Amino acid sequence: MVHSDEYKAKRLERKKRFMQQAKKNNVFKARRRNNFSKRPNFHNHQQENQQEQQFQKQDSTALRQRGFFQVLPTDDLPQVPQCSHGPCLLFEKKNGPEVEETFFACAIYRNQAEFCDFKLTFNKETGEIEVKEAVEGEEDAEKKKKKKKIFGYNRIPKALTEMSPTDTVLYCKTCINVFPNKHECVCEPVEREALERPTHLLPPVNEQHGESQFFFSTETLDVITKAVEKSKVDGILCIGAPRIFENIRALHPEKNVFLLDYDKRFAKFFPSKQYAQYSMLVDHFFDKIAEPKLMEFFDKSKSILMITDPPFGVFMEPLLKSIEKMKKRFVSTGKEETLFYSMIVLPIYIRKYVLHGNFWMSDYRVTYEGHKLYQHSEKTIVRLFTDLPVECIDLKNVAGYKFCEVCDRYVTERNVHCDRCQACTSVEQGKWNHCEKCDKCVKPRYVHCAQCARCHLYGRCIQKHDE
Ligand SMILES: C[S@@+](CC[C@H](N)C(=O)[O-])C[C@H]1O[C@@H](n2cnc3c(N)ncnc32)[C@H](O)[C@@H]1O
Ligand SMILES: [Zn+2]
Ligand SMILES: [Zn+2]
Ligand SMILES: [Zn+2]
Ligand SMILES: [Zn+2]
Ligand SMILES: [Zn+2]
Ligand SMILES: [Zn+2]
């Protein structure tokens, strides 16, 4: 299809406005089509974008802008700079095919303006990292960074053991500590068992471009806990999944559990043999004792289930690398790689990142307590991706699902088994239809287009995008 100059100019103008907005927001976005391992082709990328528009209005501004930033591997570099939040990620900013800049920036917070403005330019050709002269006050910050951190592991359980059973336990939100009978801050009495579940006591950290703590609903917590039980693994590693961790720990004291999370408030509730502060995109432990403790956990576990629920909009390449490193640590204790299972909680539209090998996606709709949209089962776009056997995701007692005898797994009530594909193919809302020409099931509103030799939304021919 040939476009008029006017049409092209309009498009260019739109694109410019979009780029300006992206720059203004200063949000680093991973470049999905530049995934290190899997590069979805052009068609897939277009499909992903359409999907986001359909199901993702709420996150759309943030997520569609992901196209401009790519995270580069740093394994071969002699050094990686650190901001006050640990080692940085290396970003490449592109404008079309042109690389605009390559720089190191925070691996935790993406909103430079508000949370962390650390940025050092990197010269890819010479391998040189920009050197900035320390401004007044920064040296102190440097010193502070190097000062030994006090984590106060297990402070709360320890304080409890020192109290008498008749004492009233007061929990102070400000001090993140417990006190017998009286304390100078305003605080409330608390049941001892409640202190085993800090995700119900601590106010969630909800930074839009960083930690984003959203805890699972009771229903989702039960589904995942049941999966852990059915899997029969004896070691559960939770990365950024504190509510799962505290639940398994409370219900199954016979299991080995370990929590890795950036939020160091958890240290006060758990011992160092079960918790460590960790930066999941750069595989970094903030305490020297943490990695040896994690290795002890791997060593005593016969099999592992790693569960992670990264913040929304996470960069997938570095996350998957960190998971690989975890697997290697486990294998180094003399076990088979096949005894390391994973469960990754992700929005549906980035499924291509994880759907390889033994990984499959459950139809189960993950919900979060208090999340504006995702607290509702019909609105959530978050799903479970796992290489656990299918029978581990048991939705018998969850409303809205049925068992497909042929697929041998639970699917949403609205999913329909396609005899041609030999699978329940509907992934999102509505029934997917089988296209004879494509020889696969396609999304509900897709129609076959002879020109493109594939199915797509009406009027979305490839040529139109292919300028
Ligand atoms: C979306 S919440 C997941 C909580 C989970 N739904 C639950 O109920 O257990 C993300 C978690 O990852 C942690 N987190 C965020 N960014 C992180 C990072 N870069 N490295 C490690 N942990 C991180 C947050 O502190 C938070 O606990
Ligand atoms: Zn930072
Ligand atoms: Zn206090
Ligand atoms: Zn089926
Ligand atoms: Zn089909
Ligand atoms: Zn078709
Ligand atoms: Zn077409």
From TrEMBL:
A Gene Ontology cellular-component term: nucleolus
Keywords: Cytoplasm, Methyltransferase, Nucleus, Transferase
Name of the protein in question: CTCHY-type domain-containing protein
Any single GO BP term: rRNA methylation
Gene Ontology MF term list: nucleic acid binding; rRNA (adenine-N6-)-methyltransferase activity
Any Pfam family: N6-adenineMlase
Domain of life: Eukaryota
Species this protein is from: Caenorhabditis elegans
Keyword Methyltransferase found: yes
Biased composition (Basic residues): 29-42
Region (Disordered): 1-59
Primary subcellular site in the record, as a coarse category: cytoplasm
Entry's localization field: Cytoplasm
Record's compositionally biased regions (Low complexity): 43-56
Basic and acidic residues bias (residue ranges): 1-10
